[in-house]
Structure formats: C-alpha cells, structure tokens
Design goal:
358 residues, alpha/beta, TIM Barrel, eight-stranded parallel beta barrel, 15% strand, binds (3S,4R)-3-hydroxy-2-oxopiperidin-4-yl beta-D-xylopyranoside
Length: 358
Amino acid sequence: MKESRADASAALRDILKDHFLVGAALNDNQIAGKDPGAVAIVRRHFNTITPENILKWEEVHPKPDRFDFCAPDQFVGLGAWQGLFVVGHTLVWHNQNPRWLFEGARGDPELLFSRMREHIHTVVGRYRGRVRGWDVVNEAFEDDGTWRKTPWYTTLGEEFVARAFEFAREADPDAELYYNDYNLWKPAKRAAVVRLVTSLHARGIRVDGIGEQGHWLLEEPTLHQIEATIVDLAKTGAKVMITELDIDPLPRPEELVGADVGKHIELTPELDPHAEGVPEDVQRKMAQRYADVFSLFVKHRAVSRVTLWGVTDADSWLNHWPVPGRTNHPLLWDRLGQPKPAFHAVVEALTRTASAGA
Ligand code: XIL
C-alpha cells in the first residue's frame, strides 16, 4: 500500500473528531517520559489515554497503608498537559492485585467491602475531576455468562459490582463510570452484562459506559458479531467503548480467544511465524481488518471511544501473552514507530466515509 502525502499528514483524532474519542494505553516507560517517540504519536493522533498497568491495585496500592501515586501522578499530569481525556484502569479486578487484598477476608465480607471502599475513595478521590472515566469493574463474567468465581464474587456475591460503582460515584460524582470486559461478542456473556447494567440502572446506580476490550483476531469475531455487540450494548442506554483494541495476526489456540491474562502456553517456532517481519499478505489482511472495524465503529453513534492497547507493536502485551516471547504485530505503528499499512487503510477508509457522508 502506497503512502500518499495526505495520509502522512492525517491525524486520527482529527479524522474521527465528529465520531468518538480515540486513544491508546500507555506503558510505564511512556508515562515516565522514557519513550518520546511513542508520546509524539500519542500527541499527534490521540485525544484520550489509559494506563496499561500503573493504576492496577498491586501498583497503586501495594501495601494496606501504602499508596504509590508517583507514576499515576505523572500519567494524569501528562493527560492534563496535552488536554487529553484521561481514563483510569482499573478499580476492581481479579488480576494484578497484591496478596494482602484478600487475606483474612474470605469469610468476612465487611472487611473486603471496607478495603474496596478505602481503595476506591482514595484513588478516585485523588484524581477527582482529572481522571474523567473509570473502568470500575473489569471482567466479572465467564464467556458462558456465569459469574466468574473470583474472590470478589465468592466473598461478596453479585453485590460487589453495585457497591464498587457506588463507592466510585461517591468519590467523583462527575466521572464517567464503566463496566469493562472481553468477548462481549459472545451472546451469553453479552446478555449477562446487559442484564447486570439494566438491573443497576433500575436501582438508580448509573453505569455510563460499557467497554468491549476488543482483543480480537484477524477473522474472529466477525464484523456481524461486532456490530451486534455494539447494538445490544447500546440498548442499555450506556455509551459503548472499544477499550483495549488490538488485532492479533498470530496463531492462537481456540480456548484462548479473548484475554484471560492468567493463561499461558509455551513458545514453539510454529507459534511465532513472523519473528523476522510480516509477510505482505498478512499486512494486507491486517489493513483490511482495521479498515473494516473502524468503518463499522463510525456507523454507530453509541460508540463514544476507541482505545488501542498500546502505541507501537514493540510495546504490545501480545508479545508476552498468551505465549511469552513472541514477535507480534497487532497495532497501527510498527516496532520502529512507523505507521503500518493498517494505519493508512484506516485513514483512507475514514476519509472515504467522511466524503461520502458530506
Ligand atoms: C495487560 C497488560 O497489557 C500487561 O502489561 C500486563 O502484564 C497484564 O495485563 N485485559 C485488561 C488489561 O483489562 O488490563 C490487560 O492488560 C489485558 C487484558
């Protein structure tokens, strides 16, 4: 695919300004100012940022009486300086927690609720008015729509979700509050989330947005499944967000479709076919896939934000998951920070849509 002059100067945030916010997750290095190349891409192309790890419980609240706000302060400062919509990720999840969080709490729901309240009040309260949206609860359901049997659920029951949203609302009444999960294109899981959000709304507990993470493959989910997801989630009245978009072109065992970070498989050469570079046909398929999904997103007013899970291929968590040590190529900028054919295809598709609509 040839790079035209117009493509080279196009910024995603400008092309998408009438549709939705567009952003990326930032890693520790980028937040610490050690990767100016990636930050330059962010400044040019994005108007929202999410921290990949630094606001997870084990990082921001490693000891019962110790919060570490150094990196989060830098992250929120970067957002303010650049005028970006800052998203917080994530308050209540079953991964990347410190061991002490669930210690002594198994048979003691009040203890766990009080830990949850203190954490949410302290973290959300500190960034009140500056972190504009929070992933309050992450990944509460299994793919079959049953509740995931995490320590949150087994100790507190379904009520843990409502309480998390209430604590966050108390801490910042003006922040947008989200439920976030992967594989919502699977009907049973999506139905469970729609039921949950509808029942919270009926109780007067507002969920402002639902995030489908969007850790997708080249051919799965289908565009039809993605569209059905957007349409169904929007029926709750909540905004719809694609919160962690990446498209993985590498082989993936069927049972690992999605983003269960607890699962790993061993590296073999067959699982790492593009270590020396991406063949042209794969680049083309990636370009088509990215153009297709962005063209779909702009069709739906309910989509209010799309965030890529990383800036360049070099940063992507998919180099380490589900197979540690692979060379992956799931984003719009390559390992050298150059825009890929997929980037140009997105720009071209959106420019075409815009001129067709004008
Ligand atoms: C991932 C990060 O990208 C990795 O750096 C980390 O080692 C594990 O977590 N769903 C989520 C994200 O909600 O927080 C996960 O991020 C990816 C899956």
